[in-house]
Amino acid sequence: MKIVTRATAIKNLKKYIGHDLAKLAKKFGITTYKNGKQNKGWKGLILERLAGLECNVSKAPNGLSYELKSVAFRYIKDKLVPKETMAITMINPQELKEHDFFKSHCWAKLKSIVFCAVMWHGKNAKKAELLEVGSLDFLEDDDLIKEIRADYDFIRKKLTKYGFESLTGKDGKWIQARTKGPGHGSTSRAFYARKELVKKIFEIGE
DNA sequence: CCATGATCATTA
DNA sequence: TAATGATCATGG
């Protein structure tokens, strides 16, 4: 059993800034494409390997105390901005109903996050350089967190009142409850960080 | 089969 | 371009 602290994970990752993740994928034997389709999770898997988390493919409520995330960045008018929203964690309807924000997995993951900015080279890109690595600890009395908690409460209330099916990506100012799942009719939901929030995280984290 | 990694496709 | 919903490979 190997324990990798957050500081160590960051240190490990920083060594790879500027590297092309596609090459590392081969080295680790991670599939990036198959039958012309992309494995959308390959970057995340590689990052986890690089950080030293060799066996982290399932959810991690127990074990490590931080969350490793990658975010795609692209240029819009010569400015670097997050390309998309960032998945935070799956929504468990039961837990959402019974726990408040500071007891949720959502908060547990958000408050102690290690993020990796990855360059986005267009759809189905075969390369992706690691741009930057950072970490961030949120405080419970942070103004931003208060607003995020309000979003969480809103979503939670909606769940109680209208049911799980009523949740949509429109909910929330900083975080949203978007659909996500294996596909093929089976869909579940997850918390996503909106782009504005991703930007904030980077600003604070740097 | 489904949760998790995160991106792709479609519409406005 | 932005926003929302749908989807894919992997591993247990």
UniProtKB/TrEMBL annotation:
Gene Ontology MF terms in the entry: DNA binding; endonuclease activity; hydrolase activity
Pfam families (alphabetical): MutH (PF02976)
SMART domains (UniProt xref): MutH
DNA mismatch repair MutH/Type II restriction enzyme Sau3AI domain segment(s): 53-151
Keywords: Endonuclease, Hydrolase, Nuclease
Annotated protein name in UniProt: DNA mismatch repair MutH/Type II restriction enzyme Sau3AI domain-containing protein
Organism: bacterium (Candidatus Gribaldobacteria) CG23_combo_of_CG06-09_8_20_14_all_37_87_8
